[in-house]
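Fresh eyes needed here. I'd like your take on this protein's tokenised backbone:
***
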Amino acid sequence: MTIRRLLLCFLVILALTVRADADDANAAFKRGVHAESLNQYDAAYEAYKLAFALKPRDPAYLASYLQMRSTAAVEHVKVGQTLARNLKYQAALVEFQRAAEIDATNFVAAEEMRRVAILTNGPKMSKVPWNWNPPRTLLSHCG
């Protein structure tokens, strides 16, 4: 009889916990949707990340998390590039580091951090062109 009661208590607690996680995931997802609608990409990223962590098998949470991870990182890279063009290298470096922290697959953030390091390491290296663009002929072969 005691074993049955313990098992029943365990099942009730388990059921309540699973439901609470699902509710928390849904609430986090809704916060992410709201933040995204306000273009608050960092807040949306954190909310989607939490929703995905709580309910990793939900494809909507996974898709939103991955998409916002990329978007938030790109926004930090854009801000960093603007700061670097205005010679605010330390602030730019912080933005590039945050982008790389959010999305480790964002190689642009890593490259921009390297450029800032080159630009801040002396007058000889400061002549590196900031806005290098590949030749149009190269771009025409890519797509």
Remarks:
- The chain is about 80% helix and 0% strand.
- Confidence is low (pLDDT under 50) at residues 125-143.
